[in-house]
Amino acid sequence: MASVAENFPDTYTAGIGHQVASWKDCEKSLSHVGSIVDKGGEFKIFEEKNQRFAELLLRCSWYLYEKENYSLARSYVDIALEKFVDKDSLTYASAVDLGGLIDLDICHPSAALMAFEQAYTISKSVLPSDDLFLTANQVNSGHALTEIGEFEKAQGYLKQSIDIRIMHSSDRIGNSYSNMASLLLRMGNPDDAEAMLKNCPTLKDFSDETFLQTGNPRFSGDMVLLSRIRYAQGRCNKALKFASKALSFRRKYCSERLKVCDSLYQVSVLRHETGELELAQQLLQECIVISEALPQAEGLGHLARANYKASQVLEGLGKLEESALHLEKATNIRGELTKPDGDYVLVNGGASDFDNLVPWMLW
User: Fold this and answer.
1) What pLDDT shows up at residue 20?
2) Separation in Å, CA 164 to CA 25, 132, 301
3) Which residues of the chain have a pLDDT value below 50?
4) What CATH code would you report for 252-362?
5) Sequence spans of domains, the chain
6) Which residues, other chains included, contact 168 with Cβ-Cβ below 8 Å and sequence gap of 6+?
């Protein structure tokens, strides 16, 4: 284990987010970590608390989260949380925070918020109130509250993160502005959201055209956001360009999992809006195939939403029998979804029901 722990990349302690450059090195060690976990369980090697083992699992879990392997990441995080010696440390807080991020991405924002608040409480007990380390957790809490619909509280957390990052001249300030823009859009203020997004140092001088020309994968989440802003402004063709660019990025840098699935859905909606029904149906079928291949905890919500949208598109194409089959499947899948923490809010069988089965904004 010592050799694997020494060589497995560590990106979580600095709170700097996704690190694509380290993915190849992480992948080299992934099978070794899996073997350690399996053998440790078989021979009960790590029955007692073991800080080094917990930290190795945390590093691995961050990578698995970045690659959207949520089920395995969750299992490793749960083991790590049991093995930590010091549960009042920033490292333990990071593990709690990561569990919240996994919950957030699979559409359990209430559970995610509980984790973020626990992590924030631990971190505040050992850090000054204006420490940069706290800002990532403030953004996460703001994101979860945005998903839940508690906009005033979300704004409070996001404002704190902006103030602290400005104070420290942090290069992560764009992350705070993007999430604040997402909140403003969710509140129905697309013009204010655009103005907020343009506060990002890397974006403020961008026009729509230069934004579309960039080759930096870091901007894919902001492209999704700007696409939604343009759509809310009634500029469907511009929205489609950004959504298509985001899909291209995500296909290049992400696995065939939720982020690609989400972008396929968004582009299909815009194709539907522009009357390109055959292409919309093709994209939705890709979305359905990806969703079906995922673990149920990750994919069912996306599968229900894609089938519901496919039923609408097929109806527009005059394929009424196929439309009815997709609608039935969507309704049945929705019925299978449980609500252990009250995250799923279903209202009268309408389209909003299916939208609520997936995160509003999947960064």
Assistant:
1) 60
2) 32, 7, 36
3) 2, 15-18, 43, 341-342, 345-349
4) 1.25.40.10
5) 252-362
6) 130, 132
